[in-house]
Write a structure and sequence with these properties.
Strand content: 15-25%
Oligomer: single chain
Number of strands: 16
CATH superfamily: L-amino peptidase D-ALA esterase/amidase
Number of domains: 1
CATH class: Alpha Beta
Radius of gyration: 20 Å
Length: 403
């Protein structure tokens, strides 16, 4: 497969580290999914000047689950609001749409409205190692540890999650891999073993460029999607989940069923039958508009509306957590002793940022679904990707296929 020039792949101990984007990977727009708004050049969170993304993907082993040995289907994704050369805080906000999950750093977000350094995303049991990796990297590079934001979703269907395969070294490698430019999506980084609306999910990103009072601003979103119920999935407003459930029951690949015709995949519950809206999603929203922490809390809440466009109702067992940041707002740091002056963004003009957040969140999740590929993991558990041809057919049926 043709790769982005920055691609670096190294095979070590059976673990695949994939650090850049495939240049020819299709995205939701490539399939004719119609989206509102104007994306940035890359249609990614890295359209925001200074923002970098780094990922480490861990894939090894097949067959029966052996705790501590594998199969391994996991990784780490890092979003660096100020890149690798600074851990200065940014104004930040957050919103817990449903708190059945974990995101560190919320005390600083709540009291001071600040986030420091890389934002890490991985699996549920990797919160500690990723946190430790960020603090170790910061202490070594800048002379002091920081208090990072680290969030998680659960990949235990496909991955040996109790084997604790993500280490602080992997977190540091993901930071070292961070770059501006294209962002790899789908089965990569923290999203490697994730399931999104009953299909293979993972990492997705998108951006919007808006003009307010004669100035251009960018809103970028990155998601790690591991949430949603298959039958509720809607894309561009169309009942894609229902349509596919009617056509492909079970594992969507009837030719792969066992000799007894029993489906061999369980992407949404045993036998592929819908069960619960569970699994979690992490949404990272960034902007170069000079927003205050209070405004960023408001922006974070709007990202949940983008998730709702896909059909999510934020089920009881899904941890749906959002963090937002601004790269240009003047920051009243924890230890600040001088008055902080800044040009504040007027609340009366914030609606375009709200709309851009909703639109970019919706498209980022769509990109995660389209970029993901079929995956078989622990105990032969199989999760299949959203079928592209079927998606186009459904969009055409409802006269929603973009030219």
């Amino acid at each position: 497969m043709k790769r982005h020039p920055l691609t670096l792949i190294a095979l070590a101990g059976g673990l695949l580290f994939s650090l850049a984007a495939a240049a020819d990977a299709p995205r939701a727009r490539d399939l004719g999914v119609p989206f509102e708004g104007t994306p940035g050049k890359l249609n990614a969170i890295t359209d925001i000047p200074g923002v970098e993304v780094g990922q480490v993907t861990l894939v090894s082993g097949d067959g029966d689950l052996q705790v501590g040995k594998g199969p391994v289907r996991t990784g780490v994704t890092m979003v660096l609001p100020r890149g690798r050369e600074s851990v200065k805080p940014v104004n930040a906000g957050f919103f817990n749409l449903n708190g059945n999950g974990e995101m560190t750093g919320q005390s600083y977000l709540q009291d001071f409205g600040e986030a420091y350094g890389p934002i890490g995303i991985s699996n549920t049991n990797a919160i500690g190692p990723v946190y430790a990796g960020i603090t170790q990297w910061s202490a070594k590079k800048f002379g002091s540890a920081i208090w990072p934001v680290v969030a998680e979703t659960w990949d235990g269907y496909l991955n040996d999650i109790e084997g604790l395969h993500v280490t602080q070294e992997h977190a540091i490698q993901a930071i070292d891999a961070a770059r501006p430019g294209a962002v790899q999506e789908g089965n990569v980084g923290g999203g490697t073993g994730m399931v999104c609306f009953g299909f293979k999910g993972g990492i997705g990103t998108s951006s919007r460029v808006i003009k307010v009072d004669g100035k251009d601003y960018t809103v970028g979103v990155l998601v790690q999607c591991n949430t949603g119920l298959r039958k509720t999935l809607r894309i561009a407003g169309n009942p894609v989940g229902q349509e596919l459930a009617e056509k492909w029951l079970g594992c969507y690949r009837p030719e792969l069923a066992g000799k007894d015709k029993t489906p061999q995949c369980r992407s949404d519950g045993d036998g592929g039958k819908p069960s619960k809206d569970q699994g979690s999603i992490i949404i990272v929203v960034g902007t170069d508009a000079p927003l205050t922490p209070t405004q960023l809390n408001r922006v974070a809440r709007r990202a949940s509306m983008g998730l709702a466009r896909l059909g999510s109702f934020a089920g009881n067992e899904s941890g749906d957590i959002i963090v937002s940041f601004s790269t240009t707002g003047a920051v009243n740091d924890v230890e600040e002793e001088k008055p902080v002056s800044s040009v504040q963004y007027p609340n009366g003009m914030i609606d375009p940022l709200f709309q851009a957040t909703v639109e970019a969140t919706e498209e980022a999740i769509g990109n995660a679904l389209v970029a993901a590929r079929d995956m078989t993991g622990a105990d032969g558990y199989q999760v299949y990707a959203l079928p592209h041809d079927a998606l186009r057919s459904i969009l055409g049926k409802y006269n929603r296929l973009a030219k």
